[in-house]
């Protein structure tokens, strides 16, 4: 894409940029002079000011932008005051972005009169997928006329050059090019990645790299020259606003400051390199341009002096601002949900029982009929086969390929894009094809999804549903049989459901939809169709459309005989998923002596029910399909021991699969690894005789 070099930028805009550059320079200087006060790690934008301001000046209040941690000049250009940025620098209570929880220049904003900013993390390049999700969401909103805009919104995703080598960035480029999304990928290339040079890190710059993504337009610009940068970004923004296509802008910049306050330039750069970069200081280049255009030098000196005074004043004010109160540390782990009680008809009018997979299809169908903001995507979920387990069958045909569609094999994109989709008001329901393949998406799940609400101080909860077929049966083998709930349960800020029957599945899916937080639905493949012997009771009468089952409500599915309990002859099994059916079958061998709780959700957990029933029986076993060592089940057993210690007649135990790296494909070996009713019966007999 070529830039029209004949165009000129008005002197008013040039002076505005010079002022912002002097503010940025003054902030860097003041922070450096007060290193003992600026104790938290931070970066500044020195050397990058021109391209950042040129970008900021193009944006409207309906646009979205993801600045990265060096983009303070972009924030200044968008309209944020130095004082607001300093509140984050010093981690103060009134930090408008995170409430004192995140680093400097890690913004998130819903300010009405400014471009919107989703939660920004420090993980290099990880903003690419969530921000592309914003662009994906805006395209969807416009296609279905869900919202009116004054102008077509533009999305900007900003990076440093070395982040482009991240695989997840390529996933974002691929998806943006494939679906022609309205996004600008702005790459600021200063030739350094901390101490790693461009020669050590990459074979090409971002401009050449982008050539491999057919449909991704591209542009190069000198990012130290404000006028050239302004014209380039004006053209790029206008292109995306009008054509609704993606573009990558590769801007060459310089690094005048430190990588961060913690990794200082003198650690790894020599004077020759620093001198080369200082020669292209954007502030000096713009100063020279203004003087050549006849601007009075005294005016420029006054601008610089005023900027320094403003920064000093704001810095002192920020120092005096209050720190966060200790009692606020647990605020915003989750957004409040209105779904707290079971409502609606659990047994509908049709007496015929349905399988679990149909319960999910019907729930999603009812949601999508009622809510145009709901959409479903993942691998192979589209109309042709409707999921490899037929778990989305008919939905593609009923709702069309813009609401139910296939994605590339991109687990990170599938999960991470929900951040951006949710931010613009949509409710994405996405699927990872097998639990074993969730690992490429774990980075997005931990770094972006789970932390968004907490680190944005409640502004950006991620409202999504992530469906994950899970579990072993019938020789699925080592890459299609895994259980992953312990890994997921260790992530703070997400909710996890694990239904064991059709009615629970439908009710929990409805609760998940109306919950403003991220939800993972773990769906046992062996229960989908009740094909595994002994799982017939996973079929239930289908609940009505109005049925909702809240999270955190366990179910007492078999209660022990009270007479046996009074004699001290009973025990409690706590389980979920396939464990329910092993427990039911084993309990038949101990009439009236075994009580079973179906947790139904792992986060939140119905601790009240668990502790109450454990105290009654004095003996408790936590049963899981997972490999037992260091598992969710073992951790729960420990919590039960701690909270019910005085009531126990025997140690709380946990039972699960053998501690093997994977589920072997051979059916004999699979059976040997997994729990079953026979093995559980032996364990129950052992515990009841203690």
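Q: What amino acid sequence fits the structure above?
A:
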């Amino acid at each position: 894409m070529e830039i029209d070099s004949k165009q000129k930028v008005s002197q008013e805009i040039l002076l505005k940029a010079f002022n912002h550059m002097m503010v940025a320079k003054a902030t860097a200087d003041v922070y450096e002079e007060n290193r003992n006060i600026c104790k938290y790690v931070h970066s500044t934008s020195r050397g990058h000011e021109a391209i950042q301001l040129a970008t900021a000046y193009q944006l409207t209040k309906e646009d979205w932008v993801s600045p990265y941690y060096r983009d303070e000049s972009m924030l200044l250009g968008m309209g944020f005051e130095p004082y607001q940025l300093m509140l984050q620098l010093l981690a103060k209570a009134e930090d408008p972005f995170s409430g004192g929880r995140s680093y400097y220049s890690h913004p998130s904003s819903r300010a009405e009169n400014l471009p919107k900013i989703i939660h920004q993390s420090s993980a290099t390049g990880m903003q690419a997928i969530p921000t592309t999700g914003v662009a994906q969401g805006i395209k969807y909103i416009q296609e279905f006329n869900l919202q009116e805009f004054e102008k077509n919104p533009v999305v900007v995703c900003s990076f440093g050059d070395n982040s482009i080598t991240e695989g997840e960035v390529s996933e974002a480029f691929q998806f943006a090019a494939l679906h022609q999304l309205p996004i600008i990928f702005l790459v600021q290339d200063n030739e350094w990645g901390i101490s790693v040079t461009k020669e050590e890190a990459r074979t090409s710059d971002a401009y050449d790299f982008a050539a491999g993504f057919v449909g991704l337009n591209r542009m190069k610009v000198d990012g130290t020259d404000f006028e050239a940068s302004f014209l380039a970004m004006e053209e790029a923004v206008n292109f995306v606003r009008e054509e609704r296509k993606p573009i990558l802008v590769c801007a060459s910049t310089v690094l005048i400051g430190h990588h961060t306050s913690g990794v200082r330039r003198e650690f790894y750069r020599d004077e020759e390199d620093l001198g080369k970069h200082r020669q292209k200081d954007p502030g000096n280049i713009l100063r020279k341009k203004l003087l050549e255009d006849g601007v009075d030098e005294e005016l420029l000196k006054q601008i610089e002096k005023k900027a320094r005074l403003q920064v000093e004043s704001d810095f002192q004010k920020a120092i005096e601002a209050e720190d966060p109160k200790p009692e606020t540390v647990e605020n915003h782990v989750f957004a409040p949900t209105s779904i707290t009680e079971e409502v609606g008809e659990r047994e509908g009018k049709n007496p015929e029982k349905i399988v679990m997979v149909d319960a999910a299809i019907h729930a999603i169908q009812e949601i999508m009929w009622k809510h145009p903001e709901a959409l479903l995507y993942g691998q192979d979920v589209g109309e042709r086969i409707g999921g490899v387990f037929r778990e989305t069958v008919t939905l593609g045909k009923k709702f069309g390929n813009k609401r139910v569609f296939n994605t590339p094999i991109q687990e990170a994109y599938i999960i991470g894009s929900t951040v951006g989709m949710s931010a613009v008001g949509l409710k994405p329901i996405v699927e990872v094809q097998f639990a074993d393949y969730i690992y490429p998406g774990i980075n997005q799940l931990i770094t972006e999804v789970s932390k968004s609400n907490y680190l944005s101080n409640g502004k950006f909860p991620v409202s999504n549903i992530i469906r994950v077929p899970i579990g072993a049966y019938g020789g699925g083998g080592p890459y299609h049989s895994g259980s992953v709930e312990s890994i997921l349960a260790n992530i703070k800020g997400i909710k996890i459901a694990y239904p064991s029957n059709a009615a629970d599945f439908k009710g929990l899916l409805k609760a998940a939809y109306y919950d403003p937080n991220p939800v993972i639905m773990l769906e046992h493949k062996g229960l989908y169709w009740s094909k595994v012997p002994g799982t017939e009771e996973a079929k239930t009468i289908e609940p009505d459309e109005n049925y909702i089952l809240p999270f955190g409500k366990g179910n007492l599915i078999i209660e022990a005989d009270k007479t046996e309990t009074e004699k001290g002859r009973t025990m409690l099994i706590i389980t979920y998923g396939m464990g329910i059916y092993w427990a039911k079958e084993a309990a038949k061998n101990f009439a009236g002596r075994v009580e079973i709780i179906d947790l139904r959700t792992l986060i939140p957990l119905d601790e009240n029910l668990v502790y109450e029933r454990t105290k009654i029986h004095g003996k408790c076993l936590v049963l899981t399909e997972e490999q037992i060592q260091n598992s969710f089940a073992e951790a729960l057993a420990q919590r039960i021991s701690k909270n019910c210690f005085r009531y126990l007649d025997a140690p709380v135990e946990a039972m699960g699969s053998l501690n093997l790296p994977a589920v072997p494909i051979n059916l004999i070996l699979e059976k040997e690894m997994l729990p079953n009713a026979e093995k559980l019966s032996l364990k129950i007999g052992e515990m009841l005789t203690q």
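Q: And what stands out in the fold?
A: The radius of gyration is 29 Å.
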